[in-house]
Amino acid sequence: MSAAIDKANLLNAALDDWRTGVEGKPAEGTVKALFGWYRGHVRYLEASHRTREDYREMMAHVEAVQLKTMTFGQRRATEVNAGHADALYRYLVKERGARQGAYCMQVCRRVWNEAIRAKKVKDPNPFARMGIKMTAKKGNRANTRAEYDLFRATAREMGFQSMATAAAISFELLRRVSDVFGYILEPRDEDRGFFWEDYQPGIQFAMRQGKTGDMQIIPLRGDPDPDSDDPEVRDRGPLLYPELEAELARMVRGRGHIVISEQSGKRFTEREVGRRLRAIREKAGLPTDFTMTGFRHGGATEMGDAGIYDIRAVSGHRTLQQTATYNKATQEKARAAGTARIRHIAGNGKDK
Fold first, then answer.
1. pTM of this prediction?
2. Cα separations in angstroms, 324 against 212, 327, 332
3. 48-84 burial by CB neighbour count: b if 16+ within 10 A, else e?
4. 203-to-200, 241, 346 alpha-carbon distances in Å
5. What would the pLDDT profile of 203-221 be if each residue is shown by its tens digit?
6. Coil, helix or strand for 326?
7. What is the spatial distance between Cα 87 and Cα 85, in angstroms, rounded to a whole number?
8. pLDDT tens digits along 238-289
């Protein structure tokens, strides 16, 4: 009886550990221990939150692969050879698909590279020169202006003004989803995004990008047009982003981050945004490949159609595609880009 009680106590303790995410220390020298060492390495800690999460997930997949008498995580790291790496890759491709299989090998290769430098394992790296090509993920398609208008109208109808405003910021100002919603993944992310204090209606919008840390000021009006019939346009210039400012005007102006959840009064999480997007998309009858990221692509496509190919002054990109030339964005370039775009939109309307 006492033996059974002791065993039950051990099982209960193990269950508690599992529930709280606490794991016993892995045996020294194992693959699992090596992964644990890498998660404390400066290269890992300097990576973005998303990259660390992805790496941790890939390591977990590798550790969990069941061998004949143990898991791959229990194998001694110094004993892993090229044959083991090839077999591991074939298994992961079969179980998790080609892309995740390749990603797991990429993570293993990086871990082993650092471990070789630290003399924890010996050269050569068993995960090097495997001849694996990472299959490029199909990019998000560009949302059209018609889809953009439908999404915003549906979001407002469902009581999700915040999502309509988020779509407008992303589409009109070509902003990353993470900046629009101001996801807090790191302590410094508190300052990321769009804040009421930085928005001057009909004048300018200022924001800090999460990816580059750059501060940008986007003018909201073009140059005054003395020939215009509209007195405001003659004196102050035309509004460059009327749809965006219309969405902002529909919100209750407060303090702090602009795009917050109507339910919690706090910034959205990625999961919450995903749920809202799916609900609005389904209600509006939009296609399943319609994404939040597609708003930025759609706005950039529209800017290109207007004849503006260097969109960095608005989008915040630092480089043109396939170049390493840095061209600092200026407010004047942003004003010119917005002006060309609004003329393009007006011209399309007349053609209809």
1. 0.58
2. 15, 10, 22
3. eeeeeeebeebbebbbebeeeeeebbebebeebeeeb
4. 5, 11, 21
5. 998 876 655 566 778 889 8
6. strand
7. 5
8. 988 999 999 999 999 989 999 999 999 999 988 899 999 999 999 999 999 9
